Amino acid sequence: MSQPSWDDVVEMPDELDDETAEALSEDAIEVQDMTGEVCPYPQVEAKKAVAGLSPGDVLVQKTDHVPSTENVPKAVGDDAIAKVWKSGDGRYRIFLRKE
Fold first, then answer.
1. 6-98 domain in CATH 3.30.110.40?
2. How much is the pLDDT for 12?
3. What InterPro entries is this protein classified in (predicted)?
């Protein structure tokens, strides 16, 4: 089995299996745990972190706040490509790859 890659993160959150999401999280340059945090804090922290990344680096934000799955990608705009993964228990991971 090959190593998970950015291409394994799909547009539909429930299409990424837990094992792949975990492996991609382990390979990320930074993981932010925003569980329990609400907007706008996750957007602010994502925007600051993405600014410090090199092109191709991946930041993962863990959250349980559904609006963050839309607001964080909007906040980083063209600075990063964002994809969202949803677990079966209401947790999300927002994968942000610096452009």
1. yes
2. 52
3. TusA-like, TusA-like_sf
CA atoms within 13 A on the CB side of 50: 25
Residue 97, SS3? Answer: strand
Predicted TM-score (pTM) of the model is: 0.84
**3-state SS, residue 14:** helix
Joined tokens for residue 63: 């959250």
- Contact criterion met (CB below 8 Å) for 10 and 18: no
pLDDT digits (tens, 9 = 90+) for 32-68: 999 999 999 999 999 999 999 999 999 999 999 999 9
Burial class (CB in 10 A: 0-12, 13-18, 19+), 95: buried
